[in-house]
Amino acid sequence: MSHLNILLVVLALAITGALSELCHPQDKQTLLQIKKELGNPDSLSSWIPTNDCCKDNWEAISCGTEADSYRVYALVLKDLNLPKPYPIPPSIGNLPYLKFLSISFTQNIGIIPNIVGPIPPTITKLTMLRQLTITNTNISGHIPYFLSQIKTLDSIDLSYNKLSGYLPTWLPSLPNLISINLDSNRFSGPIPDSFGSFRKGFWLLSLAKNRLTGKIPATFAKLDGDIVDLSMNKLDGDASLLFGPRKYTMKIFLQYNMFAFDFGKLEFPKTLVMLDVSHNRIYGTLPKGLATLKNLVSLDVSYNNLCGKIPQGGNMKFFTEYVYAHNKCLCGSPLPSCKHF
């Protein structure tokens, strides 16, 4: 075979290989750039330029089907063992079909969460992004206003970081948002009034372990998420507007705040499964309605100023004395019997 024929065969094989590759060249180039911007960590060793990012099982990515031209739609960067601190790669914004972005570290496994700095503005180029998860990293700064441009977002999880500043009033304006988790950051100031106006179908509002102060906005009377967690802040005043027989809330966590209101006047959602109001300044009696909650499996009213007889019946029989401890004068099973009530 002549040298020319050999050259033509090699060229044909190269073209055939390129045409058979599923990974879109733009996505592949972007992923390799992301790897470079992260210091080429060992955990992304499967990202080899000569391999196909879609059919050769590159770690941390998922590609669409043929109908989606095999574009990368999910990037899940977990427990990257980075050689030194790096910011979130700006090149992430060059994955136009990305719907799911997750950057996270698992606590207590010996890997330093070496993702630092602010959320990059290039993320606004992800116009199809639905879920944004950045958890247990060292990112800092405010939640940037430019995230309000990503109208497709339905879930934001920025928990366990070093974010600070006030909670952004614009969050409820995202038309598809149904879940927001901002646990364990350094947010301060009041909860915005707008947080009572999340869209119908909103199911998670978690603001625990921050530095929030002030009262719960009156607009929260309309809030009807499945899970509401305001625990471990410095909130005060009346939290009774979170409750009500017409709501469908399943889990309410208010522990370790300074709430003070008459617990005896509450009416509960029939859907309530878990309720923790411990370590507050709540007073009054325990409503008899607690005994009618068929789904209630977890209760804690300890360390308050409650008084009177503990309601009997229903699931109340499953709760130990510890859930009632350190109150003013609660009595009845499982505590000592009542003498004055």
UniProtKB/TrEMBL annotation:
Keywords: Glycoprotein, Leucine-rich repeat, Membrane, Repeat, Signal
Taxonomic superkingdom: Eukaryota
Pfam family, one: LRR_8
Domain Leucine-rich repeat-containing N-terminal plant-type: from-to ranges: 24-63
Protein's UniProt keywords contain Thylakoid: no
Subcellular location(s) per record: Cell envelope; Membrane
Signal peptide: 1-20
One GO term describing the cellular component: membrane
Annotated InterPro entries: Leu-rich_rpt, LRR_dom_sf, LRR_N_plant-typ, PGIP
Protein family per UniProt: Belongs to the polygalacturonase-inhibiting protein family.
The protein's name in its UniProt record: Leucine-rich repeat-containing N-terminal plant-type domain-containing protein
Species of provenance: Psophocarpus tetragonolobus
